[in-house]
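subagent[fold] <- orchestrator: predict structure for attached chain, return tokens only, no commentary.
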Amino acid sequence: MARKTDIPPSYYGEPRKFDPGFRGPIHNRGCTDVVCCVVFVIFILGYIALGTVAWIHGDPRKVVYPTDSHGQFCGQQGTPNANKAILFYFNILQCANPAVLINLQCPTTQLCVSKCPDRFATYLDMQYNYRYNKSYWEYYRQFCKPGFDNPRKSVAQVLRDEDCPSMIVPSRPFLQRCFPDFITRNGTLTVANKTVFKDGLGKTRSVIDLRDAANGITSLLDAKEVGMKIFEDYANSWYWILIGLVITMVVSLAFILLLRFTAGVLLWLIIFGVIAVVGYGIWHCYWEFSTLRGKPQGDGDVTISDIGFQTDFRVYLQLSQTWLIFMISLSVIEAVIIIILIFLRRRVRIAIALLKEGSRAIGYIMSTLFYPIITFVLLAICIAYWAVTAVFLASSGDAVYKVMSTPDKCVYANLTCDPETFSQTNVTKVCPGSQCTFAFYGGESLYHRYIFVLQLCNLLVFLWLVNFTIALGQCTLAGAFASYYWALRKPQDIPSCPLFSSFSRAVRYHTGSLAFGSLILAVVQMFRIVLEYLDHKLKGAHNAFARFLICCLKCCFWCLEHFIKFMNRNAYIMIAIYGKNFCTSAKDAFFLLMRNVVRVAVLDKVTDFLLFLGKVLISGSVGVLAFFFFTRKIPVIQEEVPSLNYYWVPLLTVIFGSYLIAHGFFNVYAMCVDTLFLCFCEDLERNDGSPLKPFYMSPQLHRILRREQGSKLYAAS
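subagent[fold] -> orchestrator:
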């Protein structure tokens, strides 16, 4: 009996011949890609050494605490600044200087203080009032250098020696720094109800100058206020958020188990459920739109551009334009879903058969549903180690001081200096008003010169470890599900503890192969990160060709990354089954998929689409329930709803968390379907269903998939 194929075998490799001794994943296997394994272990040891060196030289206090002009930490316990946790700028108007953008440092004296000033005052006013009331000096001296106690010293000498600021303005702390306390009254920007103030140098300045100096602080202060409200909402609703996520977990688990028995009914319910949910959303948006439109001279006539950015997002829900945008977006989504279903309606039945088989496999190997927890823990360790190492690397080195000059042109500007001997040099004579100010932490040693390179190495090994963790999970799950497929009598022939056995084989024999595939993907991702960095730097450039080239490269590397992910996934399945090295497994998987390219293009993508609809339905249903709960529209439990500033904070958290949980469960399911599909293709090439070469697939799967191409795939000769 011979078999005919659609594509000449020689074009995509010869199909596998029948092996009477093959009974699923090979247990007697040897180590693969040993060189890659050794390199991987060496890199891990080097990564540990890098972290150790960074922890020895680094000091996270440099990131946590602001630093004054002498490199001392504000608010650090055990120092003179222990009770001075806020950084104060002597002349914040200097922060509008272009040097700030170049040196990332404001060219003015910076001092640690216990509180920010709460009034307008100048050194001249203080000297005048000091004659009659000593308290003026007691207040002003808080913002002078420690140890200075000569209020009669002339203004010129005080400013020359940087003893005190020429002025102080009402401020409030933000990010442990004193910034002007801006308040908008009737559309006018004010500070302490004033629009102008004296700068202590004989000039009257506008509050607008302060705003320019503290560019972006107003929006940041608004963001801080919003952040505080969001934190309060989380504190009041975390319990109910947790309940919503637990409900999602239970629903996802029940959903997967029900697919084993009612895959067809549930999947059609998913399809029509998603269509109904989106349809309801369209109707609700139309109802809100028409209601707001019907109001005479109401908010419905106002557009989003009229009100601009608002921190209270409920304002936008009072606009008819907002609901019109929602309605159009949902209508487009509804149309796309319906069109896809119309063209793929015949393939849905085949996807149902794969999902039924996948549900049956998971039902026999329930432990696979909880493997994502292991992956999550390993990823959390990798992320934490990378973040801590990056912080310690960034905070390595000693304090470096540079000459900060107020004049635009100074020959000594941005050169390193020594604050102890700076007053004895001629820099202050050549560049009047220049200062020796703390700039950053660094050094001249070999280690400090290559901090940036070490950060890149930290990022590369982090990407490698993350991809290796994901690869280990894919190979482990593939081995467990392959054990199910290649059991002739199910479940009698399924080996005991298939998940643990598969994990042990992957770690013991195939660490090198998994590391090889992970390294290839990590290098491509590293190139993508570099391209994103270059694209960010070139956004303000006028070189259109350079931006076009970067855009093309980003597109190419995006496609390359997704192709490598697809090939790696299937290569890991072949490694789990046959125990061969990465290159051989990737080649075998590629040729096997090419020999079944139509099935791959249709069945795999249809299955992914249906699983995606399942995620959307679960997260959407829990989201709708959370919406009715947090907006007090469920009468039975209205009294239990916590008081919130923004109900969308816990709502979006529940929706996003629900999607991630459903994604974790369905990822296991997708891996199961991919493994069974590859095993099915292998089964068709190895066996013909005769007593000597029986099929290992279930009769239902064989009947439905064989019906798809019928005589095209098999014909008796």
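orchestrator: received. Logging for downstream: Residues 86-206 form one domain. The radius of gyration is 34 Å.
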